[in-house]
Structures are given as structure tokens and as C-alpha cells.
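Notes from the 1:1 (GR / supervisor)

We went over the backlog. Supervisor wanted to see one worked example end to end before approving the batch request, so GR pasted a single chain during the call. The sequence is below; no edits were made to it. Supervisor asked that the structure be written out right there so they could see what the output format looks like.
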Amino acid sequence: MTSQAEKNSSLMRFATYAAVFVAISLIAIKSWAYVATDSVSILSTLVDSVLDLGASIVNLLAVRHALTPADDEHRFGHGKAEALAGLFQSAFIVGSAIFLLLQAAERLVHPQPIQAGWVGIGVMIASIVLTLFLVVFQRFVIRQTKSVAISADYLHYAGDLLVNASVILAIILSAQLGWIMADGVFAIGIAIYISYNAWSIIRMSFADLMDEELPEEDRQQIIDLVLTQKSVMGVHELRTRRSGQKVFIQMHIDLPASLNLQEAHEISETVEMEVLKLYPDAEAIIHQDPYPAATP
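Structure output shown during the call:
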């Protein structure tokens, strides 16, 4: 029977392959649209897709490395490769935002009408459909795996949906209504939105790299679960962190001082099994303390 961890690994790998395929497809159709329309807004989304491809390839390699089992040199696994990939993606995104701002500024100074606007609109609609399929699948994978790398990929592809929709509006305003400044204005808006997404990815990656605690509601859920177990009289010194898919949980539990070592060990194992039901891919370390503690 396939374990949940194996299923999650397969989902993550497939999500990275899907992102690369979608990025290549978008580059092909947007390149044709840019040549046909000479729209800087379409150029901005083309550049974004090129950078998406680079980021998704890095993501693919990072996820493959992150899913490599722990070895003698990496006892805690390779999960932080996901967070490193997230930082690398943010660098791609910031670079694209800077490029777009420069292109948009040039177009605002020297505005030009968009040619063959219908071509751009058709390509943007196709881009929205392709990207929508991808982000829906990525969202499903994130719910199953809580992967930082896939979350980073999801953030900028989800942003692309709004970007593509804004490009359609810019083309309509410029080609159909004569507002030729719309092309440059919307390109600036796209650059700002891309930069915002980059900041979100950076925060997620640093949380993983700096061993940030799990959210308070998750920690409280762990405490509440442990306190429902037989003979457990208290929980303290709970420490948690995430590394890629892996969650590490450490805690002390208070047990009656009258228990012998075998009984305390069995209770600790029961607590560990219950915690692993919440986090199947977790590694839990539980220390038993006598209660009341012995007086020195």
C-alpha cells in the first residue's frame, strides 16, 4: 500500500512538471502575440513567463532534492532545499519587476498604439485558461503537502491570472478606446503586483530557513490532543519547526511519578502515534517528566 508520504512526493513532482509545461506553452503563444501587437503589456507578461520557466525549473530540481531521504550528512533530511528554491524564485520575480518598470517608463514617455489587439486578447484568454488549470492543481497539492516550494510557484502563477486579465483591459483601452497610455500604466501595475508576490515568497522561505514555530493554532491543537491522552498531566517546552514537508516536534509531558519506566514509555509512544495522526510526515521527540517532580 502506498504511504501518504509517497503520495505527497508524487503530487509534488507532478506539480513541478506541470508548471514547467505550462510556462513553456505560455512563452510560445505570448512570443507570437508580442510580435503581432508590439504591446509592452504583453511583453511584460512574456518576460514574466520566461522568468516563471526559470523559477519552475529551479523548483523542479529543488523539490527533487528536498524529497531525497535523509543520509549520514543530512540527518534531518533535505527539506530546506524547498525554502532555498523559494528565495531563488523571489530573485527571479524582483528582476522581472525591475525590467517591466523600465519598459513601462519608456512606453509612457513614447506611447505607441497597440496593433492587432484581438490577437493579444485571444492569447491572454488562452493564457488565463492554461494558468487557471495549473493553479487549481497547485492549490490541491499545497493542501495535501504544505510544500513551501509549490506554494511559492502557486503565488506567482496565481498573480499571473490577474496580470493577464489586466493586460486584456489595457489592450481594450488602448486599441479600442484610444487610450494609448494604458499599456504603460498597466505594465507598472503589473510590476508592483509582481514585487508584492516576491515579498510573500521571501517571508515564507525565511520562516522555513529560520525554523519558525508552527502557527499558534497548530501548537494549541497539539497540546489539546496530548492532554486528552491517558495519564498525561501536563505539556511543556513544546518546540516545533518545519523543513520542507517534514515537521519536527519536541515536547515534555508530565506523567505520574508512580509509573515505572515501561509504563511511561508506552504512554509516550501512544502520545507520539496520536501526534503523527495530525502530522503523518512529522518526527516527534517526547521526554517524560515525573509529576510531581522529585524534591531535591
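Supervisor's comment: The mean pLDDT is 79.
Batch request approved.
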